[in-house]
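G., the chain you wanted modeled:
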Amino acid sequence: MTYLSASQLRRAASIKHRIETLQKQLARLLVGPTAAPRKRRKMSAAARRKIAAAARARWAKVKGRKSAVTPVRKARRKMSAAAREKLAAAARARWKKAKAQGKKTL
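Predicted structure as tokens:
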């Protein structure tokens, strides 16, 4: 490596700084405008309750006592008898078609 004087080093540093500045400007031009900040997602009250209940249960476990909170159970979805019959009829039609084609599985 060659030995540079103090003035040459300052000039080299200045040139390097200018190159870096130009590279940043070029990158901004190529990338385009920056994206808007993301909006925060809203959590439902039910989800917050579930998370809070799980946190309380974890702390109760750490502290060695039973959880005072009962676990939150999902409500079962109920299907009307008409909807159930409609699904069953569709399934029977699928099987009838499959058996007509000689299939043993769908």
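Residues 6-31 form the longest helix (26 residues).

Shout if anything looks off.
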